[in-house]
Amino acid sequence: MSRYYVNKNAQPNGDHEVHKEGCSWLPAKENRIYLGDFSSCGPAVAEARNHYTVVNGCYYCSNACHTS
After folding, report:
1. Beta strands in the chain, from DSSP E residues, in sequence order
2. Less Cβ crowding at N or C end of the chain, within 10 Å?
3. How far is it, in rounded angstroms, from Cα 23 to Cα 44?
């Protein structure tokens, strides 16, 4: 299980990225929302959709859930 977060700040394309704890691109504490502990990025991305419409997995730590 890993702790997942969503970035409060959207990327230039509008995506709010989902990150796993320990990711080099994890936003600062004040710029992220804790989503929960999950065994993979899929459920974390689903949870992030309760906060934001446009979400995406981080290319580096949640690549299985990253879309171009």
Report:
1. 2-7, 16-20, 32-38, 55-57
2. C
3. 15
Backbone phi, psi, residue 40, to 5°: -155, 175
Q: Which of 32-36, 53-57, 64-68 has the lowest mean pLDDT?
A: 64-68
DSSP at 36: E
| pLDDT tens digit sequence for 13-49 | 999 999 999 999 999 999 999 999 999 999 999 999 9
| Closest by CA position to 26, among listed 5, 51, 42 | 5
